[in-house]
Amino acid sequence: MKKNILAALAAACALALGGCTSLHTAPDDRRVTVAPALGDSVWVTDVRMAKGRSQCYTLQANIANNTSSVAQLEYCVIWLDSTGMEISTLLSGWQFASLAPREVRGLTATAPSPDACDFRFYVQPAR
Q1: What is the number of other CB atoms lying within 10 angstroms of the CB of residue 99?
Q2: What number is the average pLDDT over the span 111-118?
Q3: Is 42:84 a contact under the CB 8 Å cutoff?
Q4: Residue 102 belongs to what domain range?
Q5: What pLDDT sits at residue 53?
Q6: CATH of the domain at 94
C-alpha cells in the first residue's frame, strides 16, 4: 500500500516539475509581427488594449528579452480606423527600446484619435 502511495506521489511530482519547463509560444495575434532576425531571443508575451479617459486606446505589448545580453530593439505601432485604413501621425515611426538581460517590459503607445480601433505592432532589431 505504501509503495502505491509513494509511486503515485513520485508520478505527481514528476508531472508537476515537468510543467516548470516552459517553451515559449508567441501570442496567437496576427496584429503582432516579430522580425525573424530576432529568432527566440525576444518574445512578445502578450498584447493588451484599453480605452483611457481621452476615449483613445492605449496599447501595451509586453516584450521579454530571453538572452543574457542587452537587446537593442525598434518597435512601431500602426493605428487603424474601423475600415482598416491606417491613421497617419507624426508618431507613426519606429521607436527605440533597450532591454536588459532577461528583462520583461511593457511598451506602450496611445492612439492618435478616438477613431483608431485597431493596430499593428512590429518589433525588429535596432539598426
Answers
A1: 21
A2: 93
A3: no
A4: 24-125
A5: 84
A6: 2.60.40.3230
